Structures are given as C-alpha cells and as structure tokens.
Amino acid sequence: MKKEIGEWLVAIIVAVVLIVIIRSFLFVSYTVDGLSMDPTFEDEDRVVVNKFMQHFSEYETGEVVVFHSEAGPAYVKRVIGTPGDTVTMEDKQVHVNGEPLEEDYVVHTEDTYMDNFTLPELGVEGEALPEGEYLVLGDNRPVSRDSRDFGTVDESQIVGEVQLRFWPLNRIAVNFE
Hints:
By secondary structure, the protein is α+β, with helices and mostly antiparallel strands.
C-alpha cells in the first residue's frame, strides 16, 4: 500500500512539474474576449498560444498574436506591420511598404471606423516601425481596440503566436494567416 501511494505521489509531482514547464515556456491558453477578431475568432473562443517559437524567429505580417498592453488585459490581434515596415491606411485599405495588403479576413467593411492613418499619426517617430515594434489590428476594424488606439506593440509585450483554436469543438482550427 505504501509503495502504491508513493508511486501515485511521484506521478502527480511529475505531472505538475511538466504542466508548469509547458505553461511557462512552451504553450499557454487564452480566452478571446469580445468581437474584435470576428470572423477569425468569436467571443469566448479558446486558443493555444505558442510561446516557444518567439525565441527563434520574428513575427510576420498576417500572424495572430496575444500580447499584454498597458491599455488593458491580454489582447488577440493580427500583426500588420513588422520592424522596418512603413504602414498606412487610406479608405480602409492598408498599405505595407507602399503595397496594398490583401486582407481576406476583414469582412466588416460597411461600418465606419478610423480608416486613414500614417505611422507618425500613431505616435511612431519616423516613417518606419522601429526595431522591436509591431503594428497590430483587429480583423473586425469597426469595434477593435488596436494600434490605432494605443500605438505600436513592443516585442517584449508579445506572449506568442496563436496556433490553435480548441474551443468550441465544432470550430477547431489551426493556421490563422
């Protein structure tokens, strides 16, 4: 009996240590709050964020990330501009480095929202995003709080890239670019 209790105790301790390691260094789950990423994500969707890959590569335009902001809790948004990029929006069309950005995920275009900006108008010094700074926007632009409201996001604020939606079960998906 003592041996069996000891084996269970060791198994439980190993499981707890593995969970702590995985959540601290590899993956963590978040719940989407609000409709700012509709139709890609809906309110209460649950996603898995890859924290590990951020140590090996920079985030790219189109990737969906979770980050912390002084403006509130963790946000889920899409990377639109990366360090060195020039980004503008005119008449609801985003331009990155002078080229129009193809954004099939933006479907809420009939509503009004801030549709004209340049980086200096968002508080960026110069015409290009500085090293370590990203411009992020929600897919549902009329209701999204994003870089248009609180400026660029420093790389240190980014938790990681969204890799998987696991809830609701009928909407499980990967690859949100």
